[in-house]
Write a structure and sequence with these properties.
The protein is an alpha/beta fold and 241 residues long. The chain has nine helices and seven strands. Strand 2, helix 3 and strand 3 form a beta-alpha-beta unit. The longest helix has 17 residues.
Amino acid sequence: MPNKDILQKDDSYYLLSRPEMAPFLPKSIKSMRVLEIGCGAGNFGAHFECAELWGIEPNENMAKHARLILNKVLLGNYDEVTDLLPDHYFDLVVCNDVIEHMNDIECFFNSIKQKMKRDGLLLGSIPNVRFIENLIRLLVFRDWKYTAWGILDKTHLRFFTAKSLKRLFIENQFQIIKFSGINPVALKFHSLKSFCINLALIVCIFIFGRDTQYFQFGFLIKHQPPEIDRSLAKNSMNSPA
């Protein structure tokens, strides 16, 4: 299983600094204006040395904490505060575990592109519905049970595989700069029972594909206006998870 701290939905979830997402940050971050949607307590901002850092957070208590770290924090969901965001202003938008909660993802992409600069970047993470433990529950135990946290979080409105997520980006005019699995299943062989269980997981991952070992996918994508050659986007679809 991934680190349990990653999955919890109590206050500690909002305090995570998400170090596994640091490798996706662009090198030119110091000169950027950044917007983080769902910023929690603002601790992911510790990875930024940027000119200006904004946040959006619906949890009022966490928004108060974030205001101690970020330059500006708007209280509410993205749809509720959109009009308070300047147009064509942000160099980078951060969406860690956000897109799967959106009612209308295409509408969100159309909206956020208006808030980004022409060559703006979007960084984020999203759960992998093909995660091996989720597949086993579905295929072996024939169950699809919503939970308080995790891939089948009851607040998730959309579910993605690596392929469908890449297609979503391309269809919404984004070029994939970096895309890879994060938070892989943790294999521990401290007893005979755990050895057998984890050996079975390894076999299943081999059978179903290496993407199934990852709890989430991390990505960095770039807004690609329609007139830019679409062949770049097509090549991105073929990149490995």
